[in-house]
Amino acid sequence: MEANSRFETMSTSYGRRVEVGRLHLSEPGSSGDGRVILDIPRQDPEYDAMWVALSPVEARDLADLLLRYAAAAESHG
């Protein structure tokens, strides 16, 4: 199985990073569907809960990233 990915990163006003990207899995017999990835990296995975609080502008920016990557995943598989 081969995995290819590309990410864009946005930062919130509280310092959280949010990564949005595409993942394309190619393996024999698969439909080749692309996937949209949303990742919130954690500083300390043992103690740092995975959450993000977004301002209205940040929420719209994230929605824009998700919509663009969803469209790309649909058109490129």
What does this structure look like?
The structure is a single chain. The chain has 77 residues and is α+β, with helices and mostly antiparallel strands. It has one domain (2-76). Helices cover 27% and strands 34% of the residues. A three-stranded antiparallel beta sheet has the order 1-2-3, with helices on one face. The relative contact order is 0.25.
Outline:
The protein has 1 helix and 3 strands, in the order E-E-E-H. The chain is α+β, with helices and mostly antiparallel strands and 77 residues long. It has a 3-stranded antiparallel β-sheet with strand order 1-2-3, covered by helices on one side.
Outline the fold blueprint.
Elements: E1 2-11, E2 17-26, E3 34-39, H1 56-76
Antiparallel strand pairs: 1-2, 2-3
Number of strands: 3
Put simply, the count of helices is 1
* Domains (count): 1
| Principal-axis shape | flat
Distance between the termini: 15 Å
Low-confidence stretches: none
Secondary structure class reads alpha+beta
What pattern of helices and strands is seen along the backbone? EEEH
Radius of gyration: 14 Å
The helical percent reads 25-40%
**Strand order within the widest sheet?**
1-2-3
- What characterizes the major β-sheet? 3 strands, antiparallel
Mean pLDDT: 77
Q: Per DSSP, what share of the residues sits in E-state strands of 2 or more residues?
A: 25-35%
